[in-house]
Specification:
73 residues; 85% helix
């Protein structure tokens, strides 16, 4: 990831590599909520079925429960 994002010369420099590793780790940790949510969201087909049977408010209730369980920091 460091090479593809910052270049080989940045990877070869140990100080820069360490700095970029810290940046990548912080970005990864900042998106933990998104990874947690994505595994719990219903499939698109099931969400559409939910919309059809329960309307937008029913769908929002389903999605909000997942968002509340895994909040954005």
């Amino acid at each position: 990831e460091i090479v593809s994002r910052f270049g080989q010369s940045e990877y070869d420099d140990e100080a820069k590599r360490t700095k970029h590793m810290a940046t990548l780790k912080a970005e990864w940790e900042a998106k933990a909520y998104a990874r947690s949510r994505s595994t719990e969201y219903p499939t698109i087909a099931n969400q559409l079925d939910d919309l059809y049977h329960n309307g937008i408010d029913g769908w929002k209730t389903t999605i909000k429960a997942i968002k509340d369980k895994h909040p954005k920091e």
